[in-house]
Structures are given as structure tokens and as C-alpha cells.
Specification:
Elements lengths: L1 H18 L6 E8 L11 E3 H13 L2 E13 L4 E12 L5 E13 L2 E8 L2 H7 L5
Parallel strand pairs: 1-6
Antiparallel strand pairs: 1-2, 3-4, 4-5, 5-6
Length: 133
């Protein structure tokens, strides 16, 4: 099941990278949790595809250019997958760039993505699933 979960997450991330839309492998009851991410000042939870798109719009609104690169996808055991990304963005009306590494814990149930938890670092994401660096 773990390899299957890794492939589900890879597919979701690849499709989102192209379309900027949630995929059919995302549960209608999907929860996007920012509660473990102190840098985020918005709501601590977003629900469903519309909620996630609201979060994503709020997150990227500050940038004229924004990109995300996947650095690692790790099996966290059970139904969880850890994803480490590098995000880079150029702030609107500025020459300043922001570079950020972020950790995510994705939870898969019955072949669907049901939850995504944002963490401020790789170490925090690994700690959240009981893994050490």
C-alpha cells in the first residue's frame, strides 16, 4: 500500500503542477491544514477543493512569479506520505525573490487524498510522522 500511496501523491502533485487544480484522486472532503505552520496567518484549515484553491490563491497572491519544485517524496508508513518542496517566488512590484523549503504530510485513504498538513520545514514534517532526520 505504501508504494501505491507514493504513486498517488506523485500523480496528484504532477497534475496540480500542470493544471493548478485538484485531481479526481482528491477526496471531496479533503482537509488542507496550516495549523502546524506558524508563518501562515490565515485560517488553520481549508475544506474541499474550493477551500484548497482559496488557500492557494491567498498564498500565491503576493507573487508575480511563483514555482514549486519537489525535492523529496518519502513513505512515512501507514497511509502517510511526506513531501518536501522548494518554493520560489518573486514578490509583486519588486525584484525581491523568496526561497522557502516546506514539508507536507499527505494522508491517503481508499486511494484518495484526504488530508494535507503543512509544516515549516523538512524536520517538522518528519517529526509529525514519527521519523527522525
Amino acid at each position: 500500500m505504501s508504494q501505491e500511496n507514493l504513486e498517488i501523491v506523485r500523480g496528484i502533485l504532477a497534475e496540480f503542477g500542470e493544471t493548478r487544480q485538484p485531481t479526481p484522486e482528491t477526496s471531496p472532503d479533503f482537509i488542507w491544514s496550516t495549523g502546524s505552520w506558524p508563518a501562515w496567518t490565515g485560517p488553520s484549515e481549508y475544506r474541499g477543493a474550493d477551500g484548497f484553491l482559496q488557500f492557494f490563491g491567498e498564498w500565491t497572491a503576493a507573487y508575480e512569479e511563483w514555482a514549486q519544485e519537489i525535492e523529496e517524496i518519502l513513505d512515512a508508513g501507514g497511509n502517510q506520505v511526506v513531501v518536501i518542496t522548494r518554493q520560489r517566488g518573486r514578490l509583486r512590484n519588486s525584484d525581491s525573490w523568496v526561497d522557502l523549503q516546506t514539508g507536507f504530510v499527505y494522508t491517503i485513504e481508499d486511494g484518495l487524498l484526504v488530508r494535507g498538513d503543512v509544516h515549516e520545514s523538512r524536520a517538522e514534517a518528519l517529526k509529525a510522522v514519527g521519523l527522525q532526520e
